Amino acid sequence: MERILTDRLIRDPELQGRLAIDPVQVAEIREALLEEETHESEPVEVVQDELGRLWLWDGFHRHQAYRDANRQYIPAHIRHGTRSQARLHAAGANQRPVIPRTAAEKRRQVRMVLEDPDGQAWPERAIAKWCGVSRDLVQAVMNELAASSQQPAEEAGSRPPAAVGSAEESGSLLPAADSFPATHRRDQVRKPVPPRLLEVFDQGRAWFLGAIRQLGSFSKDVESRLSSLAARELNCQAVQIAIRDIQAQIAFAEPYAIHQACQGEGCSVCRKFGWFTKGEYQQLPEKDQ
Question: Are 83 and 12 in contact (CB under 8 A)?
Fold first, then answer.
């Protein structure tokens, strides 16, 4: 067990098995921390990758409570690995927690394994045991994923081939502006984008991706200077890690999905925007998506 800076932990929504943070549980942990300065909660679980990034995969409530209590350091169990491995660990968390998992959270954890390149090779029995669920649930989620993957493929097959030199042909993350009619524009969960949000999902996403690429170029420049004496004195490696953390935060802030309940018109659930970021969307109950 180690004590690490609370703010160094990366809270990636895709590594969280829970659909949402319970404010009551956070408040209880926070009160205990404030009542006694020497009090510590159970260590959170973290994976440290080769770049030194610390991916939180279990203990989101505890981490939030430490931040709310202004605790500079938090106890943590750290193991070395990758973000993908952290996601697989998260899929097996919360099996005997203070707050029981909901049915939706169990399905979410099964999906976390099945959507991972390594997890896809696991047999059903292993996935069920890892996630603490029945094999029937694993089979049901597998069928859901198979059905959802067929729909985009069928839609793509009905579209005309991409024009030579278009963004689709060149492998860009964004389609060319005139590659398909505005009425057919879709968000990242394959739902139609209403006319009032076309600019947000086209130019807005382009801006986010451009910012990420610019930060990537800057990160490469910093990396090229890591071997110099000045870089060691200035702790350029920490700068590089910070840049990549910012890239991740920007990626999670970009427009991801239209709020279907209000048809993108804006309401209190989507904060009047009409759309959600990826992290917000993944934490929504199905009825609000």
Answer: yes
